[in-house]
Amino acid sequence: MKKYDPIKIDPILILNDCIRSVSIFVAATVIAVFLFQRAWISDNIFGVYLLAVAIISATTTGYVWGILASFGGIFAINYFFTYPFLKLDFTIDGYPITFFILLCMSILTSTMTAKVRKETLLSFLREKRTNSANEMIRSLYSLQNEDEILDACAKYFYQANQCSVVLYLGSPLAAEKVKFYCKNESDETIFSSLLEKQIAQRAYEKKGIFGAASEKKDYNCLGTYLPILGDGMVFGVVGFLFPKPKWISEESLQFLLFMTSQLSFALERYRILSKTQQIQLETEKEKMRNNLLRAISHDLRTPLTCIVGASSALQENHDLRNSADGDALLEQIQSDAKWLIRIVENLLSVTRLSSTSAKLAKKEEIVEEVVSEAVSRIQSRFPQAQIMVSVPQELLLVSMDATLIEQVIINLLENAIVHADSDQPLELSVKVEQTQALFMIRDHGKGVPVSLLPHFFEGKDLMKKPDASRGLGIGLPICKSIIKAHGGTIYAENMLDGGLQVVFSLPISEEVFHA
Hints:
By secondary structure, the protein is an alpha+beta fold. Helices cover 57% and strands 13% of the residues. The protein has three domains: 11-124, no CATH class; 143-274, GAF domain (Beta-Lactamase), CATH 3.30.450.40; 359-514, Histidine kinase-like ATPase, C-terminal domain (Heat Shock Protein 90), CATH 3.30.565. The chain has helices spanning 11-37, 46-59, 64-80, 95-140, 146-161, 185-191, 194-206, 250-316, 324-354, 367-381, 402-419, 460-464, 466-469, 475-485, 510-514, and strands at 164-169, 177-181, 210-211, 224-229, 234-241, 363-366, 387-390, 397-400, 426-433, 436-442, 490-494, 500-507. The chain is elongated, with a radius of gyration of 42 Å.
């Protein structure tokens, strides 16, 4: 690897400083000649050059140009304004001491001006760093994941220090995540080299600063690496590729440590928040599991009790088998068996949705076919049910898991048939609104008390009176879970002219929507 040169020469900057210095010096000489010819300040021509030296020192980089201007001023005074004119003669009595004093004054002025300019620049950099740090701290509180935190911090590290940055989450040699914010591709290549990663790994393991700007300098290493220290652990490493690492002050390193600590606070806060959310999720799962078990215990017990009772009556009384009462008992057994099948279907849906590894089998489906299949299945169970269906005349394709959406429609239709308490036909309609397909199931029954509408899909209304009509139990919560898994919404509302309407939406892809 090419050895790093800490003093990199910029030809364009040198040329600009040279042109600026020569222009100011020539202008000072012209002014001095003009004043000397008119004998206005002929005894203090050096003041003109002293002013020129101050201006050159203030407008150029470093000390070199101011010191060169100091020497140039001494030679110009001796050549243009000291007898014999247009000749250099430093042998005149008293002149060497005078010129030496003037040279010292000029160099001192140049040095002081350069120092003031440097302090001004450092003050500006401190202010810029402080603003970047404050902006980073404010933004970190609004970020929601580790990728956003790492991206934002890499950007702010770059802005505050004006150098390429790399962030390792975890061990640099086996990092979980790596974020670069570089001025050019070559810097990213440097960071990715094995030597740089080994130095970064040393910072990770030793929990200290290593690299080109550290106390124990490794001159074969170009980057400077700081560990991201948390509460008793190391989150990762942040690396910087400074143009002149030997010039990095202790104050700059302390500022980097401060920014790194803010990054560690953000990562620690995110991980604590993630753990809290995971605990809440587990609590919700446990609550759902308990509710599910309560619902299942009733929904299974009721039809099984009926089946056992009816089958026992047929078994104990042979005369019933070929009678009307026997047919009624057989019909009841068949109905309860179908109900058990319905419960099992719901349980399978719950198992499928709750599985962490399961994915929806979504694909573009024709809405009319899905609705037709659901209506056909519900009418096979409830032959007396009247359902009016309305779908768009145009072919409507929606990305969905057809089996699950059919079950949602069946659950909602069955809920309306059983609980609406109305002889009027049900209405099932589909329409497109913006980029959503809206499915609306409406009955003309008694509706639902307003206080229960917010909890409609929790099954609370049905679980309060379970013996009334063998409530769906887990059916409505399953509908909500399925629609939510599809990225849609579902809600229920009482209609002004009576009855209840349940509406759920499914997103339509942009290609299908424009088509």
